[in-house]
Design a protein that fits this description.
Order of helices and strands: HEEEEEHEHEHHHEEEEEHHEH
CATH class: Alpha Beta
Distance between the termini: 47 Å
Number of domains: 1
Strand order of the largest sheet: 4-5-1-2-3-6-7-8
CATH superfamily: Ribonuclease Z/Hydroxyacylglutathione hydrolase-like
Helix content: 25-40%
Number of helices: 9
CATH architecture: 4-Layer Sandwich
Length: about 290
């Protein structure tokens, strides 16, 4: 009996070692894209407790390209490519938006075209994260079930929180449903622990962040819109347009604990300081 138990233990240890080896063999790189700037003339919209009365701030619009062996995953797609044709930008409410280069132009130094992107994952359905999804019709779209349901089935309610069917219209057509990868909760995207979606409802029903395990840098968290800038993270403010306050705070607690337990590098996607020091294409974070 003891020999049997020892054999089982050794087999389990060997399996764990093999799996660990598999996790370390993937070629993983993270490229930062500049998908626009948003100047916010009334920053208080990012606090339902009036934390930022009379303040304004310019925010980054971050998109990220992850190389996983022969696959290319685009995380969020930023402001509309059409905006690059308007150097003066456009204003909508308290937001003034500008864009220098579209995504196709930015990935060109890597020898890539939009058709080479195999996966597109959106943190959530707001326009500054989804405006160019339809440009990647050769990819599979990764989206949380709750977010998909909101965009697909609740058009009127979705419009109120700045979600637009047209942004992912290609993938909502029945004939293209095979290109949809609808997930529920946390998800190991490639099955080897290298890229993981983290379910964080509250900002929107199906909001999520992304955990990327890089060989040199280690764990990196792409925040989605869990927090919009450094002060927002420190004081744990809840934007006025979030769909659920309690869920937002619970998700903040979850993500903070993951960051601590993983020793992860946090990249707040809308924080300029977190993004300006990242390697510029064709260089990558490894």
């Amino acid at each position: 009996m003891k020999k049997l138990l020892l054999s089982i233990a050794l087999l389990a240890l060997s399996s764990q070692t093999l799996l660990a080896g598999q996790k370390n063999t993937a070629d993983i790189k993270l490229y930062a894209l500049n998908c626009g700037r948003i100047h916010v003339s009334d920053l208080n919209v990012f606090s339902d407790t009036d934390q930022y009365i009379g303040k304004e701030k310019t925010l980054n619009v971050g998109c990220y390209l992850i190389k996983h062996n022969d696959s290319w995953l685009l995380w969020d797609t930023g402001l509309s490519s059409d905006l690059a044709k308007k150097p003066e930008g456009i204003t909508s409410g308290v937001f003034h938006m500008t864009l220098e280069k579209n995504i196709a132009q930015q990935i060109e130094p890597l020898g890539l075209k939009p058709k080479d992107i195999t996966h597109v994952a959106i943190s959530h359905g707001h326009f500054d994260h989804t405006s160019n999804v339809n440009e990647f019709t050769d990819a599979n779209l990764i989206i949380q079930r709750a977010e998909y349901n909101m965009i697909k089935n609740k058009a009127d309610e979705a419009e109120k929180i700045y979600m637009y069917k047209r942004d992912i219209g290609y993938f909502l057509k029945d004939e293209n449903s095979k290109q949809l990868n609808i997930i529920n909760g946390d998800k190991d995207i490639f099955g080897d622990g290298s890229v993981k979606a983290i379910y964080l409802p509250g900002h929107t029903p199906g909001h999520m962040a992304l955990l990327v395990n890089l060989p040199k840098t280690g764990a990196v968290i792409l925040s989605g819109d869990q927090w919009h800038f450094t002060e927002n993270h420190k004081s744990n403010d809840v934007p006025t347009f979030n769909v659920d306050r309690a869920d937002t705070l619970a998700s903040s607690d979850k993500l903070n604990k993951i960051i601590k337990n993983r020793g992860a590098k946090l990249i707040i996607q809308h924080e300029i300081n977190d993004n300006q020091n990242l390697p510029k294409i064709p260089k990558a974070l490894e």
